[in-house]
Amino acid sequence: MKEKKKVQTENQERIKTPFSEMVRKFKKQKNAVVALCFIIFLIFLAFFGSKIVPYGINEYDYNAILQGPSMKHLFGTDEFGRDLFSRIVCGTRISLAVGFGAVTVGAVCGTILGLLAGYYGGWMDSIIMRICDVLFAFPGLILAIAIVAILGSGMTNVVIAVAVFSTPTFARLVRSKTLTLKNSVFVLAARNIGVSDARILFHHILPGAIPDIIVQYSMSFGSSILTASSLSFLGMGAQPPTPEWGLLLSNGRNYMASAMYVTIFPGLAIFLTVLSFNLLGDGLRDALDPKLSD
Amino acid sequence: MSDTLLRVEDLKIYYPVAGSGFGKKEFVKAVDGVTFEVKKGEVFGIVGESGCGKSTLGRGVCKLENLTSGHVYLDGEDITEYNDRRMRSIRKKVQMVFQDPYASLNPRMSVFDIIAEPLLVHHLYQDKADLEKKVLDLLHRVGLDDYHANRYPHEFSGGQRQRIGIARALAVEPSLIIADEPVSALDVSIQAQVLNLLNELKHDLDLTYIFVAHDLSVVEYISDRVGVMYLGNFVEVGEKEKIYSNPMHPYTQALLSAVPVPDPTAKRERILLEGSIPSAHKPPTGCKFHTRCPKCMECCKTQAPERYEVDDGHYVYCHLYDKERRKQQK
Amino acid sequence: MATDNVLEIKNLHTYFYTDGGVIKAVDGVDVELRRGATLGIVGESGSGKSVTSLSVMGLLTGTKGKIADGEILLDGDDIVKLTKEQQRKLRGSKISMIFQEPMTSLNPVMKIGDQVAECVLQHEKISKKEALKKAEDMLRKTGVPRVEHMMKEYPFQLSGGQRQRVMIAMALVCKPEILIADEPTTALDVTIQAQILDLMNQLKKETGTSILFITHDLGVVAEVCDDVAVMYCGRVVERGDVKTIFANPSHPYTKGLLGSIPRLGDAGKELKSIPGNVPNPKYMPKGCKFEPRCPYASEKCREEEPGFFQIEEGHISRCWLCESGQLKTDHVEKAGD
After folding, report:
1. Residue B288 domain-assigned?
2. B276 and C159 in contact by Cβ < 8 A?
3. For the sheet containing B26-39, what is the strand order?
4. I need a labelling partner for A106 at 20 to 30 A (CA). Which of B107, B232, B310, C239 fits?
């Protein structure tokens, strides 16, 4: 009787899928959990921020120009008397959208290029990697400026510029992972079964590279937001009166001496957002690393 | 010759390595001209020390390595030149079981998906229910339970993983299974379980095995015929009884005498070989074993020995058994 | 000295304290190593044999492991109670160890001669020159070819067998009383293994060092050991001299182990495998740890873990079948049929 009970418990033990293992390990990373909560909060603001803010983003109030933080205006007002809090909250959507769009495009392109380069090697590898080397040779921001200069300013072009400069990172990452996995015994075993190249690529190699892609995705998300804001700060991205964080920062710069908060709050928003994505990336890396068990 | 399932003729597998000279290509001769046959229903054991090319040979036979030259005939069909696409139908006949049960299963696939994959790839099922039934049957066949199907490889012990690997190989109902060191990573008690399972499956499913291993006792236990490899070549091939009771090649003799016997009362004369295996990159000239051979003659240093049949189906690659030469010396 | 045992391990328990809970890697090990003899500790992976050796060497620092209970008596003195510094002084001079992996246990950026000499310098107050001389003598004894050259070479230039010889030279250069060999030949080929085993036997005779030999290979045990302790799930389950254990095993696990190895020249026989797997540490059986896989298990085995029973002088077994103090071979055989 007792034996039966024991066997049952062992049989009924919760199935540990790779995903559930990841969640278990992720929960142990306190920093990353806090960062994730903050990011979820940001996403919530991106969707519903415009409905909950007390003022419209372009609601001018010339009676309250450059006022300090108060109960009425939590973050104060800018040079046109617009409520800074409302503008920053509404700016979340823009920053997240730029980050999401640019990194997603970059990750998809980079992953496909990396898979092809790593798996087939030869001339395909040479061409793809040399292009990546060229892109890597430019500092990211300079590259983005160059692309925006060619395509013209505007948010869509910023997304394209940031996507182009994040693609090689993904390509290189996925390629090196592909090279490792290509020679693993389980891929050999799959070839032995007669699995086609496409299935090997997408069923055996890609899932193995996904954890690294996710980590890189999170890291790139932060840096993309930073780059996009930098472009706007330089006047090459979002145009006034868009409440883009980089643009807010740039406007506030003129009043730094008299009204510091006009620059502090947008800066803080950028800082916290980028930091959260980096912390999340670190946490995910540890949670997804198979070597770090427990 | 209808009972010959596999014939390998003068197979060579070389790996290119960076040469010392400029533009000069150099090769590691992992397999250097191997010839053998495997009959239907038998177990052919390939035994040798690390670096002798036995695993490369095993993988080469099912074309998971690029063959440099030679021929591989399966069921009379020359598969040497087949590309990946044409090999796909051959893979239904030849399957491999790998050494490391930890590395050979994709950690991100459930056991069900791992075993179902060959069925999916070759369309060997009618509908979803049929697929499920087939996978569960395979699981039972190798001694696992239904509840194991939804679990992932990391939850299994080495022996259980090897069972999963065997189930995957059986899925396409092959006639030849190449087992590359299938038990060397396992504990003794588990090793016996897997060996017995392989024996049982062979009888139930009419399988033929090529069994590659470094452990002479394991190879003796499971094989009908044995080939002993040294540095990319066979040195002796023959019926297991003949090889083990009457080893002819000096290397086989030394190898057999070096195996520790689990009997503290046994007293044996041991032939201690000197030095270690030379590199396959620059193998010795002549007979590759002559640098360590206790019976090395002058001719061994320059001339590679041919195959001499010393007994019915018992072949030795050694100048000692060259009848012509013996006559001359007398 | 009152006893001729150079090393006695009494009721050793080594636990690992991890986030997932306490793992009882060693949970009741009692062995005695006679002076000048070789004691084999046999067990499968996870049986705790390596952790036992690390506990003796005091090499658990840096891991989550701790000796929870028990004594390790070296010449009658308990070394568990010593400070870290005292333990360090013992290592290399009185006890030394060779590891399984000859490829990774040598420092890749240090010359062979310097590595061997360093061991001497750590424990003896002599000049570097004298230490190198000692190292050279020791290397010569281990039979490495071209010693003068070898002294100036780096590990990557050596083959696996040569590296293991260097490891042995390092371990023995300070003439320790005890040499712990943790699977020293597992990574080597049979012909090289034969060379190394031969060397160890020869050096043992010359130096009188006692050897604690840890392995999973019963063939190797039969060749080199005088006494054997069989381990299962962190416990010693049977202990005795090597001939008794092989001829007359009394614990069902030992029997199973001996039945499951294929032997040269015995290929006709079917292998008797032990069914099942080593229990999951989370679901350790309550009674005898071998009970779920044991063909002779009874209700008593399920409920209560057996202690040691003496079968004859020096042969003890942790099995209820041996309770009455005499070997019940007949009973056991019958139950198996």
Report:
1. yes
2. yes
3. B26-39, B4-17, B69-74, B77-78
4. B107
- Asked if C324 reaches chain A (Cβ–Cβ under 8 Å), the answer is no
Strands C95-98 and C178-182: parallel
We report the CATH number of the domain holding residue B45 as 3.40.50.300
Which residues form the domain of B302?
Answer: 4-93+174-329
A191–B103: do the CB atoms touch at under 8 Å? no
Residue C98: its H or E element = strand C95-98
Residue-wise pLDDT for B5-55, tens only, equals 999 999 999 988 765 555 567 788 889 889 999 999 999 999 998 888 899
Place C155 in a pLDDT band, splitting at 50, 70 and 90.
confident
Backbone torsions φ then ψ of B241, nearest 5 degrees: -60, -40
Q: How do the domains of chain A map onto residue ranges?
A: 97-288
- Which string of DSSP letters, residue by residue, matches B66-94? ---EEEEEETTEE-TT--HHHHHHHTTTE
Domains in chain B, number: 1
- The answer as to whether C45 is a domain residue is no
Report pTM: 0.85
Where are the extended beta strands (E) located within chain B? 4-17, 26-39, 43-47, 69-74, 77-78, 94-97, 176-180, 208-213, 225-230, 233-239, 308-311, 314-316
Note the Cα C273 to chain centre separation in Å: 24
Instruction: Report chain A residues whose CB lies below 8 A from the CB of B121.
Output: 193-196, 199
C10 close contact with B: CB closer than 8 A: no
> Cβ C302–A3 below 8 Å, yes or no?
yes
Residue A156's CB: how many other CB atoms inside 10 A?
Answer: 12
Q: Could you say which of B59, B105, B118 has the minimum Cβ distance to residue A193?
A: B118
CB A82, CB A60: distance < 8 Å: yes
| Contact in structure between C314 and C297 (CB atoms under 8 Å) | no
CB contact residues (below 8 A), chain C span 201-220, against chain B? 216-220
Q: Which residue is closest to B268 within chain C, CA to CA?
A: C223
Distance CA B150, CA B109 (A): 9
Q: Which CATH class is domain A97-288?
A: mainly alpha
- What is the number of structural domains in chain C? 2
Q: Is B196 on the interface with C (CB under 8 A)?
A: yes
Token pair recorded at residue B245: 């009771």
| Alpha carbons C34 and C6: distance in angstroms, whole number | 6
In a domain, C5, yes or no: no
Q: For residue A17, which residues of chain B lie inside 8 Å, CB to CB?
A: 110, 152
Token pair 């996904």 is at which residue?
A: A210
| C226 lies within 8 A of chain B by CB | no
Q: Do residues A246 and A232 make contact, with C-beta atoms less than 8 angstroms apart?
A: yes
Contact flag C219-B245 (C-beta cutoff 8 Å): no
Contact with chain C for residue A10, Cβ under 8 A: yes
Q: Which chains touch A (3 or more CB pairs under 8 A)?
A: B, C
- Low-confidence stretches of chain A (pLDDT < 70) are 1-14, 290-294
Which amino acid, one-letter code, is at B3? Answer: D
> Using the beta-carbon criterion (under 8 Å), do B276 and C160 form an inter-chain contact?
yes
Q: Which domain holds residue C308?
A: 251-336
- The answer to whether residue C114 sits within a structural domain is yes
Residue B40 located in a structural domain: yes
Q: Is the pLDDT of residue C186 over 60?
A: yes
Q: Which residues of B touch C271 (CB under 8 A)?
A: 192, 195-196, 221
Using an 8 Å CB-CB cutoff, list chain C residues near A6.
283, 285
pLDDT in tens, B269-300: 788 887 777 877 788 888 889 888 888 888 88
Strand partners, B239: B225
Residue B113 lies in a domain: no
Q: Give backbone dihedrals phi and psi of B161, rounded to 5 degrees, phi first.
A: -65, -40
On chain C, the residues whose CB falls within 8 A of the CB of B145 are none
| Beta-carbon pairs below 8 A across chains A and B | 72
